[in-house]
Design goal:
One of its GO terms (biological process) is FtsZ-dependent cytokinesis. It holds the Pfam family FtsA. The chain has 432 residues and is of the alpha+beta class. It has a domain at 86-165: 2-Layer Sandwich (Dna Ligase, domain 1), CATH 3.30.1490. The chain contains eleven helices and 18 strands. A hairpin with a 2-residue loop joins strand 13 and strand 14. Helix 6 (235-246) runs antiparallel to helix 8 (289-314) and helix 8 crosses helix 9 (336-344). The longest helix is centred in the C-terminal third of the chain and has 27 residues, at 405-431.
Length: 432
């Protein structure tokens, strides 16, 4: 198995850091070679808030993925999200010198590169420049101009920006974990690759990725991304509501949400009661499943109203034939599609990354919570294939300074020693 065939997706989320190692099979499916998962205490609402804790989580996830896949991981495709993400529409134009030559990939790349030079607001940088449709010599509605003849080529672009500091903090975490990065990819774009069908993107669809800290929205129509947004609410705020509403511990609230959580209170029986063990000899506490559902429903309705507002702002509300696709860890709550249909008036389904995964894989990886990680692997494979088609040199260490094997081993040993020493110091402080 060649290293160039293996792609690693690194999802740095609010609740978990997940590394997925995969490659494309001869049937076009994704063979998942290994998965590593770690807690993510250094991330809040999709943004890195503690470098050291995030680096530790990345190392733990990568080491677990290496162990399970029996492959050395040097380069990753990293996901980015957070409420700092913004989207803009812009038009670009390129005048070619010779109208006898066909429009080439280099011409398209030059037009896209010009968009990367746009002046942004202070503290912002461009993450993605996504062409929507091209215009060649005043002929609109062209989706692939390569091979055509023409002098003036223009395009409508969907430009996604983020805070410079947030992007740099993610890069810093990856490099401090002794890794290189092949690309930084907006997480809803990755999730869309994992759970959406091309026919859905063509007919019009809304992807809603409900994570721990944020809810990401991506709207597609005629196969093109038309609108993106990040809502600063996710599954963690529902857990906080349960803690306050039921006066229980956070760990208990998270467990109740995952095991018994429902987004429609009327679907639960009045007499269904859960007994929670008391703390330090206190009597057990009884919680009504219906009351739990009322708390979850109130917050999830608010999140979905924000989603519906973004749908209306996009201008595509009446063009989304296939409705809403829900994914992410928060999509596992019971009765969520029914609630979404009630709030938006649109059809809804849960999006699983099963369509793109080889059948031999375990059931765990087919959960909606792994949609972003699988999508990052798919996007990485697509980028490799595109570079091969264009005849570019494909190198999995494109963004990484290659280290000799002995030096790599020494760096890993040093990082483990640092973590061990820090944990030992923390334990001694605790004992004092």
């Amino acid at each position: 198995m060649e290293n160039s065939e293996i792609v690693v997706g690194l999802d740095i989320g609010t609740t978990k850091i997940c590394a997925i190692v995969g490659r494309k099979t001869e049937h076009g499916k994704i063979e998942v070679l290994g998965v590593g998962k770690a807690d993510s205490p250094g991330v809040s609402r999709g943004t890195v808030t503690n470098i050291e804790k995030t680096v530790r989580g990345i190392r733990e996830a990568i080491e677990m993925a290496e162990l399970k896949s029996n492959a050395e991981i040097n380069v990753v495709n990293v996901g980015i999200a957070g409420q700092h993400i913004k989207s803009h529409q812009h038009q670009g134009m390129l005048t070619r010198n010779n109208n006898n030559d066909e429009i080439s990939h280099a011409d398209v790349d030059r037009l896209i590169a010009d968009m990367h030079k746009l002046a942004m607001n202070p503290g912002e940088e461009i993450i993605h420049v996504l062409p929507q449709e091209y215009v060649v010599d005043n002929e609109p509605g062209i989706f692939d101009p390569v091979g055509m003849s023409g002098v003036r080529m223009g395009a409508n672009f969907h430009i996604i920006t983020g805070q410079v500091t947030s992007v740099q903090n993610i890069i810093k975490c990856v490099t401090k974990a002794s890794l290189g990065y092949d690309d930084i990819i907006l997480e809803p774009l990755a999730s869309a690759e994992a759970v959406l069908d091309p026919d859905e993107k063509d007919a019009g669809v809304v992807l809603v990725d409900i994570g721990g800290g944020t809810t990401d929205v991506a709207i597609f129509h005629k196969g093109i991304i038309r609108h993106t947004a990040v809502i600063p609410f996710g599954g963690n705020i529902i857990t906080d509501d349960i803690v306050e509403g039921l006066q229980i511990l956070r760990a208990q609230a998270e467990l109740l949400k995952v095991r018994f959580g429902s987004t429609l209170a009327d679907e639960n029986a009045d007499n269904e009661i859960i007994s929670i063990p008391g703390l330090k000899g206190r009597a057990p506490k009884e919680v009504s499943v219906k009351n739990l559902a009322y708390i979850i429903q109130a917050r999830m309705e608010e999140i979905m109203e924000h989603v519906y507002y973004e749908i209306k702002c996009s201008g595509y509300e009446k063009k989304l034939t296939t409705g809403v696709v829900l994914t992410g860890g928060g999509a596992q709550l019971k009765h969520l599609p029914q609630l979404v249909e009630f709030v938006t008036g649109m059809d809804a389904r849960i999006g699983y990354p099963t369509e793109h995964i080889a059948k031999s894989q375990s059931a765990d990886i087919k959960s909606p919570m792994f949609a972003t990680g699988i999508g990052l692997v798919i996007k990485g494979i697509q980028a490799l294939e595109e570079r091969k088609v264009r005849g570019e040199e494909v190198s999995v260490e494109r963004h990484q300074q290659s280290l000799p094997e002995r030096e790599k081993w020494f760096h890993k040993f040093l990082n483990k020693a640092k973590d061990f020493i820090k944990e030992d110091i923390d334990d001694k402080d605790f004992l004092k």
